[in-house]
Design brief:
- The chain is an alpha/beta fold and 310 residues long.
- The chain has a single domain, classed as Metallo-beta-lactamase, Chain A.
- The chain has ten helices and 15 strands.
- Helix 10 links the parallel strand 13 and strand 14.
Amino acid sequence: MDIILLGTGSPLVAPNRAGPSTMVVTGGQERSDSGEESGGQERSDSGEESGGQERSDSGEKSSGQIFLVDCGRGVLMRAAAVGVGATDITALLLTHLHSDHITDLSDVITTRWISTFSPTPLPVIGPPGTKAVVDATLAALAPDISYRIGHHADITEPPRVEVHEYTEGQVWDSAGVRIIAAPSDHRPVEPTLAFRIEEGGASAVLAGDTVPCVTLDDLTRGANILVHTAIRKDIVEHMPAQRIRDILDYHSSVEQAAATAARGGVDTLVLTHYVPPLVPGQEDQWRELAATEFAGRIELGDDLLRIAVN
């Protein structure tokens, strides 16, 4: 299993960070169709770097499943950088319906639709409200859909999207991969979800936006990796705009995310969704804050950071 941070940004636009999105690749690592190198740095679960770039000798993708967790701005561009297209996505998992986490939902739906030559439904798994958002997105795309059906003889129907709404429990069980959802706490945004993805002996939890809560602790317990959003409370609490300070109400600070990892007994904490945006050279500051609560391995980095879960 591989974890790839496609987008490590937030609602605050940063030139080098796409919107929140994480890819989980099971059953082997994805390869670029062209065999070209894909950017980004790769690390194994042991913390060792593998040189920063990977090349496919055969140019073929190994079998497996690819899960996209949230779809913030620029997600398909980042996915393309690691050789994954919209048609390769096994399922889209949505932690919640805040705009920064679903900005490119229309792009994922449309690009998958026009890139396939047979009906290929897109499974979308999310909290209640997901179907309403998907329906509204399809309604907004109605002119484009009609143009393409009218222009292309081989496009005879609109995009197929299969929405599955959950508040907790098992949401996926196929080809050796099991996914469990649990409620997180991002109130007043509710309901919201965290996901645990399991394959063989490997497991990763993707927390989404949340403050510490018992349900996330339970979901995290014994996992290999916790991917958690993080806010620098020590910086944000001094910002002059109340609207910015308000985000402290429903996001975990670096220290709180680390404490969740410690309670869960995970091996590795991966921080993402940095607020304010992570500035090169400040990585050690973030790690030191996390290390006050968590003694395990702490990872943070740029878009396309890949971590192998062994």
